[in-house]
């Protein structure tokens, strides 16, 4: 891969420009859907927020949705223990709810009525958040871990990559049991090849990326 040093702000501006390009603009009455994939230590929400701001400056409405808002209840996540790697990879996130409440409404002919979150992992209760109307021509920004292994219909996908060493250093002690899960995700899904753009963020102060079109 060819890496280009860049700031997070400039990256967001270039991604917004790509989405706003007439060659990539959504058809009338449709939406664009962006996935920003990365382990929790990669802080995918930071880039999602910057991209939302850059789109707003271009007059493009957007909605940021965190995958962590669609965790399944603790009784299901911890059915085989609190540190089960297989469960984390395949059973922690309510992908059916994401399809139904987030991607379905932004399919062609959809309503644009998106549920921004469903479950609060802290209280282990439904969030009861109201639906948000994303107008046609808007951009849905979904961020979080393990996104590129579910065939989600992203028009643009970004993978924030951390080396194994950086991931271990930046992952909280209580969550280090997930490291084998991300190693398997890298081996089985190869998100760097699946994504349209890859960001190298071992040092978050000095990111580098491939630009759009690496996948």
From TrEMBL:
Which InterPro entries does the record cross-reference, listed alphabetically? P-loop_NTPase (IPR027417)
The record's annotation in Gene3D superfamilies points to: P-loop containing nucleotide triphosphate hydrolases
**Protein name from the UniProt record:** Uridine kinase
């Amino acid at each position: 891969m060819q890496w280009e040093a860049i700031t997070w702000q400039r990256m967001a501006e270039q991604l917004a420009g790509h989405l706003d390009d007439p060659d990539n603009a959504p058809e009338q009455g449709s939406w664009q859907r962006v996935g920003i994939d990365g382990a929790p230590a990669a802080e995918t929400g930071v880039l999602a927020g910057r991209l939302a701001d850059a789109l707003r400056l271009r007059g493009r409405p957007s909605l940021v949705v965190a995958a962590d808002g669609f965790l399944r209840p603790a009784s299901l996540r911890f059915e085989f223990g609190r540190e089960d790697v297989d469960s984390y990879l395949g059973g922690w996130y309510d992908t059916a709810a994401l399809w139904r409440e987030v991607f379905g409404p932004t399919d062609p002919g959809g309503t644009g009525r998106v549920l921004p979150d469903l479950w609060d992992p802290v209280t282990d209760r439904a969030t009861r958040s109201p639906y948000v109307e994303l107008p046609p021509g808007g951009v849905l920004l979904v961020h979080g871990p393990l996104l590129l292994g579910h065939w989600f219909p992203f028009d643009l996908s970004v993978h924030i990559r951390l080396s194994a060493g950086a991931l271990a250093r930046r992952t909280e002690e209580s969550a280090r049991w997930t490291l084998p899960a991300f190693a398997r995700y890298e081996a089985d899904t190869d998100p760097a090849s699946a994504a349209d753009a890859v960001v190298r963020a071992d040092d978050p102060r000095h990111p580098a990326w491939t630009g759009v079109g690496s996948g």
